[in-house]
Amino acid sequence: MFRPLPIYLGLRYVRAKRRNHFVSFISLTSMIGLALGVIVMIVVLSVMNGFDREMRERVLGMIPHATVESYQPVLDWRSVRDKALQNSQVAAVAPFTQLQGMLARGKAVQSVLLNAIDPAEEPKVSIIGGFMRQGQLDDLKPGEFGIIIGSLAAEKLGVKVGDKVTYIAPEVAVTPAGVFPRMKRFTVVGIFSVGAGELDGSVGLIDIEDAARLQRWPAGAVQGVRLKLHDLFQAPDVSWSIARQLPGNDWYARDWTRTHGNLYQAIGMEKTMIGLLLLLIVAVAAFNIVSTLVMVVTDKKSDIAILRTLGATPKQIMAVFMVQGTFIGVIGTAIGCVLGVIAALNVSAVLAWVQQVTRSPVPQCRGVLHRLPAGAIAAARRPAGLWRFLRPELPGHALSLLERRPYPTRRGPAL
């Protein structure tokens, strides 16, 4: 079967055993370095993407995408809901009231943010129901003063379902006996675990009617409504647009970019910087391959001279080494991609093995392999590998024929 000369010779050079074993060793280590760089990039970026997705699904699934609130108690939140649902970006609406304070049991005290919810409406805007370890949202009954707390808060307070905790409000009550903090006893009816320390340790859920009683509001009064949006990045514009359309001047809006935006930006910046650092790691392997090809060109001087003598053009000679270098680069990239994908899909098992070998705890993480990072890494490495092998060969065809001849020229007899 006919094959072009550069491809034929390039593949022969790849398979052939070199006289210089040091060059072969450096070439092998360069390929391994390239493969390891690709593996690390795929695994780390997949883990970062998984963390980003988990943060978006869990944290942003728990906190409101946006809220529309009033400085005065909202007596008819359903009319606000109907107005908000007229916006095409709004997927669901639910009432809420927030209370800050502390939970106490014995000598244990834990700060808490109480989210008063309507158990029938809350699943429309929150994923909290899917992370209940004990109990369920429907266990919150008006007038029974039940509370659902996170797993970390329950562990710190030493409580379980059925135990009593005391809510201490940041306000005081003036009585004939003196000034006392406002307190209320709650019964733990459920425990949730989202996997985010901020939520599991400092968030509690109560019935919205109980919150109105604590605030001494009329029955059914709420602080505002929380919005679930189709596009959470439209939260600032959508929430303020709805607030401006409501009657009166007491309305204002808040969104997740103000409450948790710094966390999201920090994750994005961290992912970018890690990607840049990993790219530099792969660049180190690239420089090793450049050194390898320089030595290969030097090692093949005699072969270059023979090819030029037989009529090979400089471009053909350059193409021979381009084929050789590109083949090695593609093999290294392919091995890295395959092993990187396997490692990313089994990252939990890899971490468990590392923990067993090192006998030190390793935080568990969840990797989510996206086609874009893996494909982009592989696509970026191939032309980069081609250019790395091309650059050292440019001077290869420009060497003098006499310098590259395999044998010295024979001189005639002295006169």
UniProtKB/TrEMBL annotation:
Superkingdom, taxonomy of origin: Bacteria
GO cellular component, one term: plasma membrane protein complex
UniProt keyword terms in alphabetical order: Cell membrane, Lipoprotein, Membrane, Transmembrane, Transmembrane helix, Transport
ABC3 transporter permease C-terminal domain sequence ranges: 276-345
Residue span, MacB-like periplasmic core domain: 27-211
A Pfam cross-reference name: FtsX
Protein family according to the UniProt entry: Belongs to the ABC-4 integral membrane protein family. LolC/E subfamily.
NCBIfam families: lolCE
Name of the protein in its database record: Lipoprotein-releasing system permease protein
Organism: Pseudomonas oryzihabitans
